[in-house]
């Protein structure tokens, strides 16, 4: 609701103590007992208001580089005066595309602008998230098959790859992982293939860690994940990344050596990520 404040901010009025700021998203906080101490496990998702809208009606990017369903999700653990967090993002493919139709199943992917008309918005989007979050890795979960009902996904994915390879941001790793093909029938073991591709970036980006007011470690980049809707597939893969990072968070808090404690945090965060996807 920043626009409700902006006319006051322009006149230098400090509204922090009497004008409530609100966000669109979800917050879940759970207590995890660590011996006689209490830790707080938190998952916060913040949905961008720059290109809001319902599924099927709002897709892709606008001219300013803001994409549909752009969400930053933060996994946080508070323990006494220590805090550690890991942030990742999701968002629609940053091109001009849509899915016209009335009934679910009849929504075919339609590219609404050509390459040259889409390129400036694509560049603006990647520049924006680089400036805001640091280094980037794109994880693209779209289907790759040109046969059957997923040919629209494959076409969109190919255009995404083409724009990326010909843009000023071709230094950003673009990892292709056809989720439906690789994890068919609920075979989540194949996520290990994705782990092998992103592990070095997760290590490089690290995570945030502070004790009281002293920041001891900062996260230097984020993974940007997308599928078609940026809902189920994306949430599943983001859950996988978050649980991989959880061990590092617990190590920083000196809790990783206790397997029972690790299992407890894993169980709590897994359920919270399921809730995050549903909300």
Quick overview of this protein structure:
By secondary structure, this protein is α/β, with parallel strands linked by helices. It has helices at 3-9, 115-133, 151-165, 179-182, 191-205, 232-252, 259-278; strands at residues 25-34, 37-47, 71-79, 82-90, 97-98, 110-111, 135-140, 174-176, 208-211, 214-217, 221-226. The strands form two sheets. Strands 1, 2, 3, 4, 7, 8, 9, 10 and 11 form a nine-stranded mixed β-sheet that branches. A two-stranded antiparallel sheet has the order 5-6.
Description of the structure:
It holds the Pfam family Syja_N. It comes from Bracon brevicornis. The protein is of the alpha/beta class and about 280 residues long. The chain has one domain (about 25-279). Helix content is about 35%, strand content about 25%. It contains seven helices and eleven strands. The longest helix has 21 residues, at about 230-250. The mean pLDDT is about 90.
């Amino acid at each position: 609701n920043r626009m409700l404040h902006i006319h006051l901010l322009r006149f230098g009025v400090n509204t922090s103590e009497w004008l409530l700021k609100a966000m669109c998203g979800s917050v879940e906080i759970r207590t995890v007992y660590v011996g006689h101490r209490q830790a707080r496990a938190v998952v916060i998702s913040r949905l961008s208001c720059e290109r809001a809208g319902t599924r099927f009606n709002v897709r892709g990017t606008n001219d300013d580089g803001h994409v549909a369903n752009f969400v930053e999700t933060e996994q946080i653990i508070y323990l006494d005066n220590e805090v550690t967090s890991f942030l990742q993002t999701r968002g629609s493919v940053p091109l001009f595309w849509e899915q016209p139709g009335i009934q679910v199943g009849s929504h075919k992917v339609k590219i609404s602008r050509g390459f040259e008309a889409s390129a400036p918005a694509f560049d603006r989007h990647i520049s924006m998230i680089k400036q805001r979050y640091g280094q980037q890795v794109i994880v693209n979960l779209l289907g790759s098959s040109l046969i059957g009902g997923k040919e629209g996904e494959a076409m969109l994915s190919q255009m995404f790859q083409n724009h990326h390879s010909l843009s000023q941001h071709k230094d950003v790793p673009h990892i292709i992982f056809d989720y439906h093909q690789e994890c068919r029938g609920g075979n989540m073991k194949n996520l290990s293939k994705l782990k092998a591709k992103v592990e070095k970036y997760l290590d490089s980006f690290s995570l945030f860690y502070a004790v009281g007011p002293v920041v001891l470690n900062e996260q230097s980049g984020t993974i940007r994940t997308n599928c078609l809707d940026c809902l189920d597939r994306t949430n599943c893969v983001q859950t996988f990344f978050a649980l991989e990072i959880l061990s590092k968070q617990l190590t920083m808090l000196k809790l990783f050596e206790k397997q029972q404690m690790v299992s407890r945090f894993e169980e709590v965060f897994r359920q919270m990520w399921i809730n995050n996807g549903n909300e």
